[in-house]
Design a protein that fits this description.
about 280 residues, alpha/beta, Rossmann fold, six-stranded mixed β-sheet, 8 strands, globular
Length: about 280
């Protein structure tokens, strides 16, 4: 299949941008300067996927800042910004399973709103992306619409396909053993992932995956991420955070099976949260 001019541009744009995240090289900066003069007129969406605490938001912000310096404007939106509020999640909990009261997994986002806005963005319509206040667990402010033609969508399960039903039979952690012994919750999460989430992923033009080394590292990094909230008296306690992470374990483990083949670019992280390699790198 012949790659479109816009996708070829985006692949090169991301290649040199991600190389610069690993090491500053004059040649790569020069290539980006050249490409910045050739930006396609159509709107393009870049997805960043990665486990909790892997650095998705930081990478998105770093890319946005680098590109702005080259005159290329970028919007950023997080899947987390489209969480359902507590009352809405409680409705899901009553309808489907009590575990849906906790935000995070597929089924706890306003996918209809996000999909509508992504489709509008692809048509060239400026969007006011919303923000979610995690500390207060409610929808926060909305960012003013811009004329950006690049959008970064980041999220912990972005790009994942639903699991096979046979993969859902056995519980993988204490949360599933104690609160979902009949696999009702995980089947419903899987069913949700098959729906609007796939339509959202299909809006993506390129997928970057931040590949964490293992589950233990993910839990450690997520604890680091919680510290600012804890200092403001809003965060989860260590015990609460340990329990909270169990909601994400199944699909995070699944990402290590799916995304090595599904991602366009893979940034490998080491145990200390440092970017160590890019695949492909040319």
């Amino acid at each position: 299949m012949i790659e479109s001019a816009s996708n070829l541009w985006l692949r090169q744009w991301l290649l040199y941008s991600l190389k610069l995240q690993l090491s500053e090289q004059r040649l790569w900066n020069e290539q980006l300067m050249r490409l910045s003069q050739l930006q396609p007129s159509q709107a393009l969406i870049i997805c960043i996927s990665g486990a909790q605490g892997s650095g998705k938001s930081s990478l998105a912000a770093a890319l946005q800042q680098r590109w702005a310096a080259l005159g290329v404007q970028t919007d950023i939106v997080s899947l987390d910004d489209y969480y359902l509020e507590p009352a809405q999640r409680q409705n899901q909990a009553q309808l489907w399973h009590p575990l849906f009261a906790e935000r995070g997994v597929p089924g706890t986002h306003d996918t209809s709103q996000l999909l509508t806005q992504l489709q509008g963005f692809k048509r060239g319509e400026p969007q006011s992306w919303r923000r979610y206040d995690k500390g207060l667990d409610r929808i926060g402010h909305t960012k003013p619409a811009t004329t950006a033609r690049l959008l970064i969508l980041e999220g912990w399960c972005v790009g994942l396909q639903a699991q096979q039903d046979s993969d859902l039979v056995h519980s993988i952690n204490l949360l599933e053993q104690q609160h979902d012994p009949d696999a009702v919750w995980r089947h419903q999460v899987n069913q949700q992932l098959k729906g609007d989430y796939q339509l959202i992923w299909q809006q993506s033009d390129k997928l970057i995956w931040l590949n964490a080394p293992d589950w233990q590292a993910v839990c450690r990094w997520r604890a680091w991420q919680e510290q600012p909230l804890q200092q403001r008296g809003q965060g989860k306690s260590p015990a609460e955070l340990e329990h909270f992470m169990l909601y994400f374990e199944r699909l995070t483990q699944e990402s290590w099976r799916q995304l090595p083949q599904g991602a366009d670019f893979i940034l490998q992280l080491d145990q200390e949260h440092k970017l160590v390699s890019l695949t492909p790198d040319e």
